[in-house]
Design brief:
This protein has one domain (about 20-204): minor pseudopilin epsh fold, CATH 3.55.40. About 50% of the residues lie in helices and about 10% in strands. It contains 8 helices and 3 strands. The longest helix has 23 residues, at about 20-45. Bound molecules: manganese (III) ion.
């Protein structure tokens, strides 16, 4: 079975004014669609087609750059669309908030640390909040790498990710990456992040 581009839960203009409709359209159809097609082409006729994406990424150092780049791009964008919502923003609740306060001191300190990871990633990449060895950690990865990969500096299960490739913000924000990062907080779906946390905790 080939990997499929998952349906978006909202339309292209739903995250405006923070993420504009044209960026959403191109990002989802051309970029995410491209990673999906290129991943399928890269694994066609191999035993990898029988594996879930998480299993493929786990041993990615043994695989081709095409699988690393497009498999990462496929997984990362699936997560990115899921953790945003037109009804997003505000603050996390419940166990997620408790763990953020436990590991970062406060929600504001976490917010600053995550924003800083996103702002200081040189070139293209992602900022992550990760469930790793029984704790929450923040860091960033280059290109389409992610914390599921054996090549990652910090390994774990990502529960929040921010795409800081220029294709994610340049049409609206041009060189103003910090403004894009600041506006991301208005569209985070904390319920979706909380459910990813619960799944991550139950797996480890
Ligand atoms: Mn992207």
């Amino acid at each position: 079975m080939a990997f499929q581009l998952p349906a978006l839960k909202y339309d292209y203009k739903a995250l405006e004014p923070y993420i504009d409709a044209m960026t959403m359209d191109i990002h989802y159809n051309k970029h995410h669609g491209g990673y999906t097609n290129n991943l399928n082409a890269a694994i066609e006729g191999t035993s990898l087609t029988a594996l879930p994406i998480e299993e493929i990424l786990k041993d990615v150092s043994k695989l081709s750059p095409a699988v690393r780049n497009n498999g990462g791009g496929y997984y990362n964008h699936n997560l990115f669309w899921e953790i945003m919502s037109p009804n997003g923003g505000g603050r996390p609740q419940g166990e997620l908030l408790n763990l953020i306060e436990k590991f970062f001191g406060s929600f504001n300190e976490f917010k600053e640390k995550f924003s800083n990871a996103a702002a200081t990633r040189f070139g293209s990449g992602w900022a992550w909040l990760v469930w790793s060895d029984g704790s929450l950690k923040v860091f960033s990865t280059p290109n389409q790498d992610n914390p599921l990969m054996d090549v990652a500096e910090i390994k774990g299960i990502p529960i929040l990710g921010l795409d800081v490739w220029e294709h994610a913000y340049y049409l609206k924000y041009q060189n103003r990456r910090p403004e894009y990062i600041q506006n991301f907080w208005n569209v985070i779906d904390w319920k979706a992040v909380e459910s990813k946390l619960q799944m991550a905790i139950s797996k480890l």
